[in-house]
Amino acid sequence: MNQIITPYEKYQSLGPESLTDVELLSILIRNGTSKKDALAIADELLGKYDRDGRIIGLFNLTADELMEYEGIGRVKAMCIGSLFELSKRISKQKKQEALSLSSPSSIADYYMEQLRHLMQETTYLLILDVKCNILKEIKMTSGTINSSLVSVRDIFVYALLYKASGIVLLHNHPSGDSTPSRSDISLTAKLKEASEFMDIPLIDHIIIGDMNYFSFKSKGYI
Predict the structure, then answer these.
(1) How far is residue 61 CA from its own chain's centroid?
(2) Which tens digits make up the pLDDT trace of 70-112?
(3) What's the CA dihedral at 166, 191, 110, 119 to 10 degrees?
(4) Is pLDDT of 51 > 60?
(5) Domain residue extents for the chain
(6) Are 205 and 213 in contact (CB under 8 A)?
(7) Which CATH class is domain 7-92?
């Protein structure tokens, strides 16, 4: 009879890279119930939220949503959520040193993991100093699943408040397609006009999709 090797034993003998997604998640879940073990619970979670072999579907689950699964209480839900948050921060921190605010691809790469998983359209304003360093990152809006209302007036209120030498606007498209909408193009035109009047340059407006982005600067809108 073949001996069953647990994820813990596999981890210890072969390292974490040898474990499947289900096995890694089961280690976080730790204990199951009288009806399901940790592996079964992990398999059920991934089966529902895995997207095309990727586990990013789990990233946006709240603690309450995780607790809907038998065997996952608040502490386990918080542990899983904490891991996902740490992974986002690690990814962002690793890219921070290479961040160039004058390069659309660098900005998009830096914010990709933070924004591409979001289920709602969310807008961030970057306040830049004279050397193009980030003085302040401001979350402007978090809208419905496919729209987010942004006020040009509010953007420049913040720009003046923090004495910006330049600004960058970013938002995501939950659909994964970074192609700008008519409202995106209209907003960018208004921002460009206002930035020229206020003498605070609009460096770029970048839309983040799922592993793709659109830069208004690169496409000649700015």
Answers:
(1) 13
(2) 888 898 888 888 888 887 777 767 666 556 667 888 888 888 8
(3) 150
(4) no
(5) 7-92, 98-215
(6) no
(7) mainly alpha
Look at the chain and count its residues. Answer: 222
Beta strands 122-128; 166-172: pairing state = antiparallel
Structure token pair of residue 70: 């038998």
Start-to-end CA span in the chain (Å): 69
Give the relative orientation of helices 21-29 and 74-96 as an angle to the nearest 10 degrees. Answer: 130
Q: Determine the Cα–Cα distance for residues 115 and 121; give it in Å rounded to an integer.
A: 9
- Positive or negative: CA dihedral 143, 144, 145, 149: negative
CA distances from 8 to 18, 20, 32, 164, 173 (A): 11, 12, 14, 51, 39
pLDDT digits (tens, 9 = 90+) for 148-196: 678 899 999 999 999 999 999 999 999 999 999 999 999 999 999 999 9
Q: What does CATH list as the number for 98-215?
A: 3.40.140.10
Q: Give residue 153's identity as a one-letter amino acid code.
A: R
